[in-house]
Design goal:
Number of helices: 0
Structural class: mainly beta
Number of strands: 11
Distance between the termini: 40 Å
Helix content: under 10%
Strand content: over 45%
Length: 117
Amino acid sequence: QVQVVESGGGLVQPGGSLRLSCATSGIIFRLYAMAWYRQAPGKERELVASIPSILSGDSTNYADSAKGRFTISRDDAKNTVYLQMNSLKPEDTAVYYCNAEFGDRHWGQGTQVTVSS
């Protein structure tokens, strides 16, 4: 059974930081490309950042809104992907979802990030 579980969301003031984690089980994690998406109320889900698997020659990829502020990383020994978010803005408020893809795709349940003073 595949499990994808996000954690680390919460309420933070503008300019603050959060680190999201996504722990997986039931997949050969190192084979999967991993990504973070987000969905704000009334908006479509959008890609925030992605990181390739060891099989790929691709590099990490960021949405323009995330460049310079967010960093995606992975620990294949822990089957976990992270999203370090700095200099958070109110417009970063959304539910953040983790995605694992290697032919098939698996989603987590999401973690709420709220940026507000």
